[in-house]
């Protein structure tokens, strides 16, 4: 539970801040979007992919998931989020994920 809360704080802050800055949505809407992404990334990326593979593969999957999720929502809700901004948010999340997996959750990573 503590790991999920840390992921929620770090990733949620990154996504919500970037979305609020780059789009016309409210900060609370950005927090809701960030929460959805964090839950998906935790369930798919951390609980399934990271346990079955390694940090590098799980991080790449997190980046792809974040880019796809944000790109889809940007398209569906007609946000002004460009491809470059989407990629920048996803790569920032990927870096945060890699660091968290590497240094904070070392006992779960198989070498």
What's the number of structural domains?
A: 1
Strand-pairing-aware structural class: mainly alpha
| Helical fraction | over 70%
Overall strand count: 0
Distance between the termini: 24 Å
What characterizes the major β-sheet? none
The succession of helices and strands, N to C, reads HHHH
How many alpha or pi helices? 4
| Mean of pLDDT | 90
The global form is globular
Radius of gyration: 13 Å
Low-confidence stretches: none
Q: Please report which band the strand proportion falls in: under 5%, 5-15%, 15-25%, 25-35%, 35-45% or over 45%.
A: under 5%
Written account of the structure:
With 111 residues, the protein is an all-alpha fold. The chain has one domain. Helix content is 82%, strand content 0%. The chain contains four helices and no strands. The radius of gyration is 13 Å and the shape is globular.
Helices and strands in order:
Blueprint: H1 2-22, H2 27-52, H3 55-76, H4 83-104
Helix pairs in contact: 1-2, 1-4, 2-3, 3-4
Labels describing this entry:
111 residues, mainly alpha, 0% strand
């Amino acid at each position: 539970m503590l790991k999920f809360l840390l992921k929620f704080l770090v990733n949620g802050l990154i996504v919500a801040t970037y979305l609020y800055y780059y789009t016309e949505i409210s900060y609370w809407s950005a927090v809701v979007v960030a929460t959805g992404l964090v839950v998906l990334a935790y369930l798919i990326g951390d609980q399934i992919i990271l346990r079955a593979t390694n940090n590098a593969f799980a991080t790449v999957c997190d980046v792809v998931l974040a880019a796809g999720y944000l790109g889809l929502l940007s398209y569906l809700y007609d946000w002004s989020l460009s491809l470059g901004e989407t990629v920048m948010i996803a790569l920032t999340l990927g870096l945060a994920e890699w660091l968290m997996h590497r240094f904070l959750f070392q006992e779960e990573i198989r070498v």
